Amino acid sequence: MKIDLHGLHIHNAWKHFNQAITEAYLSNNKKVHVITGQGAIMREVEVWARNHSYVKECVQNPRNPGSFSIKLQKSG
To answer: Which letter, b or e, does each residue of 34-72 get, where b requires 16 or more Cβ atoms within 10 Å of its Cβ?
Structure first.
């Protein structure tokens, strides 16, 4: 699953991130790719991920700092 937050205002990006992570978890996705661009959202995503109960791990892509791979907790 892919979440594209690039170009959104930060508050709307945060709401979309939380909703999309929850939907991904409930759909039994194991991994989510998040695109942020390289602005304010990029600096916030790791905090958002750390505070979301369904996120197991958040790793910034070393070749493209404006994207992240997020592993989700096992559902069930």
So the answer is: bbbbeeebbebbeebbeebebbeebeeeeeeebbbebeb
What is the pLDDT tens value at each position of the chain, 76 positions in all? 999 999 999 999 999 999 999 999 999 999 999 999 999 999 999 999 999 999 999 999 999 999 999 999 987 6
The matching CATH number, chosen from 3.90.1010.10, 3.30.300.30, 3.30.1370.110, 3.40.50.300, for 2-72 is: 3.30.1370.110
- Distance, in Å, from the CA atom of 24 to the CA atom of 52, rounded to the nearest integer, reads 12
Strands 31-35, 2-4: pairing is parallel
Cα–Cα nearest to 34, from 15, 11, 58, 56: 58
